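User: structure tokens for this one?
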Amino acid sequence: MTPLASLCVYCGSAVGFAPRYRDAARRLGQSMAENGIRLVYGGGGIGLMGVVADAVLAGGGSVVGVIPDFLESRELGHRGLSWLHVVDSMHARKNLMEQMSDAFAVLPGGFGTLDETFEILTWRQLRLHDKPIVLIDVDGYWAPFLRLVDHVVAEGFARPESRRLFTIVERVEDVIAVLRRAPEPVTRDAPERL
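Assistant:
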């Protein structure tokens, strides 16, 4: 069983066109607060990032934001967080978020969310961490991503077991249970061939 005190959530700095995305972010934040799980996220006060952070805070939970100084200087940082870490780069942001988290959940988002998702999956593939990763497939949002993964495997650029680097859930209500059921992370020596 994976201990789950802190959950890193990757999601959009926009809310998207459909209200269901905002609703999913709000419900995830509420669930985290109800279960005493600290949110670790990109520190923004806008988009789905702001929605999930506000929901955790409204439920009495704690929220840690990690934001690069160039974004903070544009006043995009959330002003009501429990803690806000200002770092010097996007890489430092992603590294600190990984270190502070027991697991990862991914809501819909744009290029930044895809970047974070691919990087945390790659780090797991390289065995830099072994923390569970869950993609929340709000009304099929991640279906094109799954097709891309299948294509990469079919073309011989990834092994079939790469599909086990992450789990897909269709309902926000399943996220915490799925993460808690995941095997406890282990650290292994990197193999000769990944």
